[in-house]
What we know:
Layout: E1 3-12, E2 15-25, E3 30-34, H1 41-48, E4 56-61, E5 64-65, H2 71-77, E6 78-81, H3 93-100, H4 113-125, H5 141-154, E7 159-163, H6 171-188, E8 191-195, H7 199-205, E9 208-213, E10 216-221, H8 223-227, H9 231-236, E11 240-243, E12 252-255
Parallel strand pairs: 3-8, 3-9, 6-7, 7-8
Antiparallel strand pairs: 1-2, 1-4, 4-5, 9-10, 11-12
Magnesium ion binds next to helix 1.
Amino acid sequence: xxxxxxxxxxxxxxxxxxxxxxxxxxxxxxxxxxxxxxxxxxxxxxxxxxxxxxxxxxxxxxxxxxxxxxxxxxxxxxxxxxxxxxxxxxxxxxxxxxxxxxxxxxxxxxxxxxxxxxxxxxxxxxxxxxxxxxxxxxxxxxxxxxxxxxxxxxxxxxxxxxxxxxxxxxxxxxxxxxxxxxxxxxxxxxxxxxxxxxxxxxxxxxxxxxxxxxxxxxxxxxxxxxxxxxxxxxxxxxxxxxxxxxxxxxxxxxxxxxxxxxxxxxxxxxxxxx
Length: 274
Ligand SMILES: Nc1ncnc2c1ncn2[C@@H]1O[C@H](COP(=O)(O)OP(=O)(O)O)[C@@H](O)[C@H]1O
Ligand SMILES: [Mg+2]
């Protein structure tokens, strides 16, 4: 099992923001991590990436605890793309992607032909070969997002943690990223955990879904099983129905757009009338 954790908990100060999170990620599995804003998705990914020390529980890669693993070794196994990654302004796309490869580069050997090829491949996969020499500040939000994805790909890790990788992308690139995720899992056996807001995209691309509500895991199963519950309505406090779209595809959640306002937009007038 590439990535596992059991009863993982994270607290900020006294506040528990992730409480007893379990995951058993299989090789080649795509796991969608969903939940309302603030439910703990990013926290869970950071803890899985070994970046925050859990209050309880531990994370293991192939049975080895990540907190005992040297950083470079961890980076050869696991690539993590944060929700809001940052890099020095003047950095170019090529430099960023090169940096993604650092864990493979021998301390005295430098970048070899295999590394150069991995970098070219990562740029090609994300359609950035033509923008390699641009600085990150000269890119659109979507292009920058793809540059970060490219850097994670250059790492050629067997576990990929992506925090909302399709945010800021237009629908065409959203589909491309999801397609890339799908091919990485199926063709290369990469195991992926991806926080994602679009429920229907999550349902159609993932093998399993983990649903978080206020730090607790309230569902862990396949999309069809989720569609058999009313959890989405409860957790996100919306009305909607799962509608079948094709025999072999999970149903789509059709959300009801409430046109009834729960509060009056008209500001009450003061007694003076003005
Ligand atoms: N560095 C931090 N310090 C204190 N609280 C934090 C920190 N990061 C996140 N939180 C809190 O933890 C909760 C979970 O946040 P997060 O994991 O970012 O949720 P999500 O990614 O699902 O929107 C939120 O209530 C958030 O305010
Ligand atoms: Mg988040």
